[in-house]
């Protein structure tokens, strides 16, 4: 049996801020969850639909593992990532750091984890692992999944080996804080302007403020798009609000990050961005509620209302990011 000592098992709201937070706190770098998300330039938006999807996917953040990579770059952390097609080598990549007294981050498909309350395939889920015995792995997951949790080694192996959208080949990683790492305070402006630039000038129309505008148009068709509207629309709304895919969770995190940043930087642009995201966050919750009502009732006028709210969100978030992009000027 191996258990890393000194682990703070606090679970956050989002998996890819919870796991790096565990790894960094173990080394004495304790940052709030909004600060981890903001320094990781995590906010974005994606509307995705395709033949391999049962229903459209709304993402409210950058792609899986990008927050971790951005955070490491921004703070000068040593990020060591290991991927392999070999289950044996993958297990060695985990037990090596654990046996040496270091927690490890894992990317996996949450569907296979025994403690997971929502059985939906999501290959971009991230957890921190801090111990194991002959039968069980000890993990830190989000607060809503229980924080400090356990799952069988068999289920963990299945979750790590899963293939499909957003999965990685048995990905594990460690983060190391060097003695020369820059102060988080000095990295606020680069992290904010990088996030704003990507949001304002996305590579395709499905992403950023253009993606929200596209969602405003296409959400009107969701009753026809759904195989089972009473199932699919409420499920999409639940994912938005409780898994954070395209709902208020990431807007709340970014709002709170900007509030922390205003304690450090005296900037009207920053205050404007914070004010607008404080307006935007509850509108995402309203959107999810309207989508749920449409699915339960079969009445299209709720989707017309959701479309109007999404149009307003595209405007608000575009205005917020334009203000934030001026921080570096």
Automatic annotation (TrEMBL):
Signal peptide, first to last residue: none
PROSITE patterns, A to Z: CNMP_BINDING_3
Record-annotated Cyclic nucleotide-binding domain positions: 249-309
Top-rank taxon: Bacteria
Protein name: Lantibiotic ABC transporter
């Amino acid at each position: 049996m191996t258990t890393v000592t000194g682990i703070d098992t606090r679970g956050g709201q989002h998996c890819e801020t919870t796991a790096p937070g565990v790894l960094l706190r173990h080394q004495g770098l304790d940052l709030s969850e909004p600060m981890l998300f903001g320094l990781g330039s995590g906010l974005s938006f994606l509307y995705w639909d395709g033949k391999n999807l049962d229903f459209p996917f709304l993402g409210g953040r950058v792609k899986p593992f990008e927050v971790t990579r951005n955070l490491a770059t921004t703070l000068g952390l040593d990020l060591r990532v290991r991927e392999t097609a070999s289950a044996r080598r993958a297990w060695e990549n985990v037990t090596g750091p654990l046996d040496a007294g270091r927690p490890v981050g894992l990317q996996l498909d949450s569907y296979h984890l025994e403690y997971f309350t929502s059985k939906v395939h999501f290959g971009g889920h991230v957890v921190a692992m801090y111990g194991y015995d002959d039968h069980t792995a000890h993990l830190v997951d989000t607060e809503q999944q229980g924080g400090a949790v356990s799952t069988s080694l068999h289920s963990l192996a299945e979750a790590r080996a899963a293939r499909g959208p957003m999965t990685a080949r048995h990905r594990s990683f460690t983060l190391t804080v060097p003695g020369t790492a820059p102060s988080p305070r000095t990295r606020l402006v680069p992290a904010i302007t990088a996030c704003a630039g990507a949001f304002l000038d996305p590579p395709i129309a499905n992403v950023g403020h253009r993606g929200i505008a596209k969602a405003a148009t296409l959400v009107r068709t969701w009753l026809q798009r759904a195989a089972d509207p009473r199932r699919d629309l409420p499920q999409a709304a639940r994912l938005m609000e409780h898994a954070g895919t395209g709902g208020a969770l990431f807007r709340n995190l970014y709002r709170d990050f900007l509030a922390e940043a205003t304690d450090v930087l005296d900037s009207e642009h920053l205050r404007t961005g914070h004010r607008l995201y404080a307006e935007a966050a509850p509108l995402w919750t309203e959107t999810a509620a309207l989508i749920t009502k449409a699915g339960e009732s079969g009445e299209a006028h709720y989707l017309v209302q959701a479309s109007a709210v999404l149009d307003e969100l595209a405007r608000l978030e575009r205005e917020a990011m334009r203000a934030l992009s001026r921080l570096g000027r």
